[in-house]
Structure formats: structure tokens, C-alpha cells
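Page 42, continued from yesterday. The earlier attempt failed because a stray header line got pasted into the input along with the sequence. Redoing it now with the clean sequence only.
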Amino acid sequence: FSKIECYQRSLALDPQNACAWNNLGNQGGGEVGGQTFSKIECYQRSLALDPQYVKAWHNLGKQGGGEVGGQTFSKIECYQRSLALDPQNACAWNNLGNQGGGEVG
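This time it went through. C-alpha cells are written below.
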């Protein structure tokens, strides 16, 4: 089984698995339950299930941001969310800097 197939099987068994949605997004997205999901959609699903999921916020930021819980988040806002949850996330600090910086906390 490929990485994607493993994540798809995980989600077929438990569609509420935020980690599997994040990981499927990391692989470029894929089909679950007969529906195709993009990277961004996978990260959005992950965050809908677990709004405290630091890696999913960071990954959504890397894709330019997106909508979570009916609210649209920019790339910078995603990095800020990630850092508010985990101020030790060096990659998120770097990416926030690449976007010109911003307030955290």
C-alpha cells in the first residue's frame, strides 16, 4: 500500500481522524468515500475536526490559507494560529517571517 492508500483506508475506517486528513493533504490530497479532496480541503477537514491541530494550521498556511469553521484565514493568520498553539514551532516562525512577520498570541 502507498502512503495515500494507507491514509485513505484510515479515513474509510474513521472519517473523523484529523491526523489522517492532515497526512493525506501532505501527499497532495486524494479520494475518500468517492469524493476527491485537494490539499487545502484535507487540511480544512483536519482543522474542522481538531481546531488545535498545530501541523494542520501550518500546512494550511503553506497552501495560502483557507476557510475553517466558516471563517477565512490568510496564510499569515494560519501561521499565527499555529504559533499561538505552539510558540516553539521554528518552521512556522520562519514562514511567518517570509510573509513579512506579524503579531502572535
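Notes: The mean pLDDT is 96.
Reminder to self: strip header lines before submitting.
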